[in-house]
């Protein structure tokens, strides 16, 4: 399977962040319902953008539509802090979604943060390999159905930060990263792991993302987000503030 890059990705524009979240919630339900066999695997992004989406998925409008028993939730990255730390992506996802939907119990796989960062990254990779059923990724058999990504104002995505060795990692599925301009040691999916997907969706909201979106879309190789690929389809799901002036 040869798939999309940031230059061939679809661009979908919605009026505002609420509409972006609604579109993504509808998209996830449709994709999960359409997968008739096996587990629907999604890697969640962190930060603040996904909060509206997670709250929507936990709302009465959506909670009955998602086939939760067939959905497995993973994380694209995590800050290496305790899971009850305010900076934890896992904590944010629990506060906005998993604490409110009992059916997700046992289907959520947080990145461990109770060992050293290296130990925890290796442990998460072993979990992913066990769920995949192999030690090596097969391009013809993507692991994730959906990888959700955000984008920082330095062009990072997941915890693939500028100037970090993890940008060169092509063997590991999960690795550590110590950003030189953001807090916390991080654990992140690597480019090969993100590429092992049927859909990559960048959720972008607000004019603060416009410059980076424009540069990534133009193929600026200096930005980590520019190097994201997928075996399947890639979509930039943006609000108007992100895409004004970008083709
Ligand atoms: C993280 C994220 C990171 C995030 C971007 C955008 O752990 O911080 O995974 O990659 O998606 O930094 O963050 P916002 O959505 O808060 O702008």
UniProtKB/TrEMBL annotation:
GO molecular-function terms, A-Z: 6-phosphogluconolactonase activity
Pfam families listed in its UniProt record: Glucosamine_iso
Keywords noted in UniProt: Hydrolase
SUPFAM superfamilies found in the cross-reference section: NagB/RpiA/CoA transferase-like
Hydrolase as UniProt keyword: yes
Domain Glucosamine/galactosamine-6-phosphate isomerase per the UniProt entry, residue ranges: 16-234
Statement: the UniProt record of this protein carries the keyword Hydrolase: yes
UniProt-listed Enzyme Commission number(s): 3.1.1.31
Record field: catalytic activity: 6-phospho-D-glucono-1,5-lactone + H2O = 6-phospho-D-gluconate + H(+)
Role description: Hydrolysis of 6-phosphogluconolactone to 6-phosphogluconate.
Protein name per Swiss-Prot or TrEMBL: 6-phosphogluconolactonase
């Amino acid at each position: 399977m040869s798939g999309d890059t940031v230059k061939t990705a679809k661009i979908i524009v919605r009026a505002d962040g609420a509409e972006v979240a609604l579109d993504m919630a509808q998209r996830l339900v449709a994709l999960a319902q359409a997968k008739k066999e096996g587990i629907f695997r999604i890697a969640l992004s962190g930060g603040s953008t996904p909060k509206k989406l997670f709250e929507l998925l936990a709302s009465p409008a959506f909670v009955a539509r998602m086939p939760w028993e067939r959905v497995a939730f993973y994380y694209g990255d995590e800050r290496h802090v305790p899971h009850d730390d305010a900076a934890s992506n896992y904590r944010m996802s629990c506060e906005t979604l998993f604490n409110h939907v009992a059916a997700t119990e046992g289907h959520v796989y947080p990145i461990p943060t109770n060992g050293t960062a290296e130990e925890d990254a290796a442990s998460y990779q072993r979990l992913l390999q066990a769920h995949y059923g192999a030690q090596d990724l097969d391009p013809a058999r993507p692991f994730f159905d959906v990888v959700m990504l955000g984008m920082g104002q330095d062009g990072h995505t997941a915890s693939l930060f500028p100037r970090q060795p993890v940008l060169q990692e092509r063997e590991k599925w999960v690795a550590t990263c110590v950003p030189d301009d953001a807090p916390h040691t991080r654990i992140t999916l690597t480019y090969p792991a993100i590429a092992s997907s049927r859909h990559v969706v960048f959720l972008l909201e607000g004019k603060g993302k416009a410059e980076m979106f424009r540069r990534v879309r133009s193929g600026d190789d200096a930005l980590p987000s520019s190097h994201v690929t997928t075996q399947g389809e890639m979509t930039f799901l943006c609000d108007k503030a992100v895409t004004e002036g970008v083709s």
